[in-house]
Amino acid sequence: MTSTETLVLDETVAACAPWSTVVRAGEQLRIIDLHGNQAVDCLLYSAADPAGERYSAQATMTAQRNIFLTTGSVLRTDSGAALMTVLADEVGNHDTLAGACSQESNTLRYGQHTRHQHACVENFLTEALKWGLGKRDLVSNINWFMNVPVEPDGTLGIVDGLSAPGKSVTLRAEIDTLVLVSNCPQINNPCNGFDPTPVRMVVTR
């Protein structure tokens, strides 16, 4: 934080936990990977109209002609409106394709013995309810710090992350933006190094 910035919020999100806040227009949200190799699933909504204006992976990728997010990426709604902009990125590559883990997808990918395991979709639903949102309001999400290379045949890989302890990504809100986060609880693939850890969320003005 610089001398010209005012601290609005500084919270640590426990491993596997959900989190949310409204980041006001012009404020910056810095997401810090405290221990490294932790995926942070994220959904964005217009705070004024969460049902009508929400993050669109398709619109974002089409506008920037890139499937990955990094410095300069503008996170857009279906209408093309800007929600947030990536101002700084110490990792260089964030996923838009792999989606959020769920109890259903866990059983398909890893076997019926994982059915009881908590997952990101459940985190999103828990946090969304606080804002009057439900399952129908969940859309394709961003996976900050998650490394998902696309193979020449189009298949997606989920491999060890590119992040490290203390690495961060900083977003500026272009409008008042509701941010929902699932600090991913996945333990069946390398996206969290098989050991979910806390992350830090810092909002400044």
In short:
The protein has helices at 57-64, 103-110, 120-128; strands at 7-13, 18-23, 28-33, 40-46, 74-76, 82-89, 142-144, 167-173, 177-183, 199-204.
Please describe the biggest sheet, giving its number of strands, its sense, and whether it closes into a barrel.
6 strands, antiparallel
Q: Would you report the number of β strands?
A: 10
Order of helices and strands: EEEEHEEHHEEEE
Shape: globular
Task: Give Rg in angstroms.
Answer: 16 Å
Structural class: alpha+beta
Mean pLDDT: 93
Instruction: Kindly estimate the percentage of residues that lie in beta strands according to DSSP.
Output: 25-35%
Number of helical stretches of at least 4 residues:
3
Q: What portion of residues is helical? A: 10-25%
User: Largest beta sheet: what is the strand line-up?
Assistant: 1-10-3-8-6-5
Low-confidence runs of at least 5 consecutive residues = none
Give the CA-CA distance, first to last residue. Answer: 10 Å
